Amino acid sequence: MLIAIVGPCAAGKTTLAEALRGLGYNARQIAQEHSFVPAMWQIITQPDVLIYLDGSYEICTRRKGFNWLPHEHAEQIRRLAHAREHCHIYIHTDELTPAEVLESALAALKVANLEE
């Protein structure tokens, strides 16, 4: 089973993908937020499960120390609209630690009977 993870910059995609791989899952982060092709996540991976990690402009900026403007974050969200509409699992990460994001993803996989 292939798990693809999308979301705006600094939402936690890399951290979650690494954690899932550490548990034996085939997980891959997709930089969909940089693509002008709405379904790039499908073209690149054709995943069995799509996880969308969301994060606010304020929190994503703080996490990475970005020097970007709100409209740049909004553009990433716009580019991610197709993925968000088609995701199996949605997690808003603003108030969560990396461990809590992993726990949420694992619980959602189990509830949706999508775990390996």
What features would you highlight for this structure?
single chain, 116 residues, globular
Describe this structure in words.
This protein has 116 residues and is α/β, with parallel strands linked by helices. It is built from six helices and four strands. The protein has a domain at 55-96. It has helices at residues 13-22, 40-45, 57-64, 70-79, 81-86, 98-111; strands spanning 2-6, 26-29, 49-54, 89-92. The protein has a four-stranded parallel β-sheet with strand order 2-1-3-4. β1, α1 and β2 (26-29) form a beta-alpha-beta unit. The model has no long low-confidence stretch (mean pLDDT 93).
Q: Outline, from the CA principal axes? A: globular
Task: Characterize the biggest β-sheet.
Answer: 4 strands, parallel
Mean pLDDT score: 93
User: Which class best fits the helix and strand makeup?
Assistant: alpha/beta
Distance N terminus to C terminus?
Answer: 7 Å
SS field, number of helical segments:
6
Percentage beta strand: 15-25%
Spans of at least 5 consecutive residues with low confidence: none
Element order: H for helix, E for strand: EHEHEHHHEH
> Gyration radius, to the nearest Å?
13 Å
Could you outline the blueprint of secondary structure elements for this entry?
Elements lengths: L1 E5 L6 H10 L3 E4 L10 H6 L3 E6 L2 H8 L5 H10 L1 H6 L2 E4 L5 H14 L5
Parallel strand pairs: 1-2, 1-3, 3-4
